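Lecture notes, part 5. Sequence design as translation. It can be helpful to think of inverse folding as translation between two languages: the language of shapes and the language of residues. The source text, in structure tokens, appears below.
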């Protein structure tokens, strides 16, 4: 079992504040393995996929009193009939226990969670294997970009399309259909694959609906489900006074580079493919390490763009540009952005592996670094 100290620390920090850590993430991202890594001597593990578990937890007070270990793990807890009641009683009546509940989405996604446990839980969103976890997993960066960061795919000797197709079918049947009641798997998967092919670009509802021959409400409801289950991320535009800024149109990103390259038919990867996939990996790093600062992007109507923007405070806005080859960086858009928003750090994030260093582009100072050296 590969240790994942970053994620173990995130769970421990959640427990310092509340009783319940809600570990969410897409299917096969490693939630169960991470939960089990907390130590058999500490955890009482409950597989909520098993039919017998419903009877086991029917009386929550009796169940929690019988727990002889300090940590209770409810894996895939949304499979239970009334998971919110179970978790609420655990947090309120047995505060000495630490609870880890796993699921594919946010609590609010399921109709079963009439009580979203406000004030009793903290969310930990488990992403695919991160840039700074590659050494522990014995994986190279090109391997991670091609295969993606789901451990079964990352460890595969060759990229197998059957894995990605089976995952998408299972994702629909076990998550989307159960949580949202959608019935047409073919239409849903056609939309999902279309959006994976557009990943990293701007998302237009009308254009998407027209391309697939479906209605705007269908596109909107399906995209909302994909976002809630972490299969897609909508990165909204940052704006606040600059001239001719985009203010509404988001960019859309698939959750994993392996699925993006699968949908686009990129096997093997070419040099020109690396930059787009590297941008996805940087976004995943931002989501994992800075969850309190949602990534945005900046673009004006002339097409000048800054990849990611993190607004830390009202007058402090960090700008992050992603480049596979730092020599190819053009500072024009970043300089224009800073003419509107002068306060904040500038980063050029590359996979070079070099120690972070400052570089000047005229009057603009930029820190050139890997994702590991990003500091907020």
């Amino acid at each position: 079992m590969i240790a994942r100290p970053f994620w173990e620390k995130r769970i421990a920090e959640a427990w310092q504040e509340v009783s319940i850590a809600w570990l969410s993430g897409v299917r096969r991202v490693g939630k169960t393995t991470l939960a089990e890594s907390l130590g058999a001597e500490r955890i009482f593990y409950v597989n909520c996929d098993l039919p017998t578990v419903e009877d086991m937890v029917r009386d929550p007070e009796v169940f929690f009193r019988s727990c002889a270990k300090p940590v209770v793990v409810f894996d895939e807890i949304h499979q239970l009939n009334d998971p919110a009641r179970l978790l609420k009683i655990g947090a309120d009546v047995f505060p000495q226990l630490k609870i880890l509940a796993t699921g594919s989405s946010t609590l609010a996604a399921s109709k079963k969670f009439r009580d979203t446990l406000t004030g009793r839980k903290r969310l930990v969103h488990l992403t695919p294997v991160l840039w700074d976890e590659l050494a522990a997993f014995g994986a190279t960066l090109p391997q991670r970009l091609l295969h993606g960061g789901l451990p079964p795919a990352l460890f595969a000797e060759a990229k197998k399309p059957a894995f990605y197709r089976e995952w998408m079918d299972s994702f629909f049947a076990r998550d989307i259909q159960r949580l949202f009641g959608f019935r047409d798997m073919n239409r849903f998967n056609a939309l999902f694959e279309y959006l994976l092919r557009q990943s990293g670009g701007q998302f237009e509802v009308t254009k998407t609906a027209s391309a697939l021959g479906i209605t705007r409400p269908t596109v909107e409801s399906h995209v909302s489900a994909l976002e809630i289950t972490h299969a897609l991320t909508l990165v909204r535009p940052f704006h606040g006074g600059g001239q001719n800024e985009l203010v509404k149109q988001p960019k859309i990103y698939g959750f994993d580079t392996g699925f993006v390259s699968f949908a686009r038919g990129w096997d093997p990867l070419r040099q020109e493919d690396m930059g787009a996939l590297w941008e996805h990996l940087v976004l995943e790093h931002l989501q994992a390490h800075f969850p309190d600062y949602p990534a945005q992007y900046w673009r004006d109507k002339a097409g000048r763009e800054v990849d990611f923007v993190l607004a830390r405070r009202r007058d402090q806005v960090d700008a992050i540009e992603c480049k596979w080859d730092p020599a190819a960086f053009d500072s024009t858009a970043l300089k224009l952005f800073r003419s509107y928003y002068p306060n904040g750090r500038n980063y050029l994030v590359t996979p070079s592996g070099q120690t972070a260093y400052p570089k000047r582009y005229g009057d603009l100072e930029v820190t050139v670094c890997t994702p590991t050296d990003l500091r907020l």
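The translated text above is only one of many valid answers, since several sequences can fold into similar shapes. The chain has 15 helices and 13 strands.
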